[in-house]
Fold:
Amino acid sequence: MQFVEAHGARIPQIGLGTMTLKGDVCVQAVKTALQVGYTHLDTAWFYGNEKDVGEGLRQSGIKRENVFICTKVRETHLEPDKFRQSLSESLANLQLPYVDLLLIHWNNKDIPFKTSVGALCQAKKDGFAKHVGVANFTTKMLDDAWAATSEPLVCNQIEMHPFINQDKVLATSKKHGMAVVAYCPIARGKVPGADALERIGKAHGKSAAQVSLRYLVQMGVCAIPRSDKPDHLKANLDVFDFKLADAEMAELKKLNDTNMRVVNPPHAPVWDTP
Ligand SMILES: NC(=O)c1ccc[n+]([C@@H]2O[C@H](COP(=O)([O-])OP(=O)(O)OC[C@H]3O[C@@H](n4cnc5c(N)ncnc54)[C@H](OP(=O)(O)O)[C@@H]3O)[C@@H](O)[C@H]2O)c1
Structure:
């Protein structure tokens, strides 16, 4: 496993995304993932599966301290009291005293960064999170959050795959020394079957999904693909034994012009334009 380091955090470059996984499907996916070598789990209070993620961790037999666990606080809970309530529910669900990474899941434009980021930083000071960061932040939000924070924001978790151009937010995240964690790294299932990715994969004896993950790994970002299929879980980890050529990376980069954003809920910010 390779890692991305940022402000003292060491984030395994491939993690397991768990959104939509619930109940025993989630428990088994987490357990299998950890047993085949994953060391990074991504969940959120909003996913309603933290109990299952914690259960999968315990059933795997893998030591908790060998796993990097991220959860998130929703935009409805960014004021100090609600933030504490959400976080304490998350820790109770996971049955853990702390998480490795705690993120603001989405910004709330009606709450000043001093308040929301202040609550986030307090969670770290209280020992409930080893590191803190954000998700779905734009360039402007990153600059404003950094101006308000008392703790380093170690990552920005954003949508990234070959079909979206995130150059601006990537550059601003890097300017602040942050890791970028790519969600929807296989475009929520739209990568398999895409011509260029299938063709490039064939040349390397890999699948289109593996090409998408490798593209992200070579860009220096982390990726958190979701699957509940043991063969997909293994395949998604098996992206460190081949290298995409510069011309292949350039061809995949050109697909950014597709401009396909998979996740764009009503509470999303005005995104950076390419
Ligand atoms: N911060 C945020 O706001 C935010 C937003 C969205 C997502 N996320 C996080 O990012 C994670 C990943 O994003 P996502 O779940 O939306 O989408 P994704 O990981 O891009 O795609 C998941 C889909 O791809 C399929 N898949 C996985 N591996 C495959 C493989 N090797 N070959 C073929 N198909 C494969 C899965 O089906 P199978 O189960 O059949 O393999 C599933 O249908 C989430 O689970 C969540 O943890 C965060």
In short: Strands lie at 3-6, 9-12, 16-17, 40-42, 68-73, 99-104, 129-135, 153-159, 179-183, 222-223. The chain has a mean pLDDT of 98. The domain at 3-258 is CATH 3.20.20.100 (TIM Barrel).
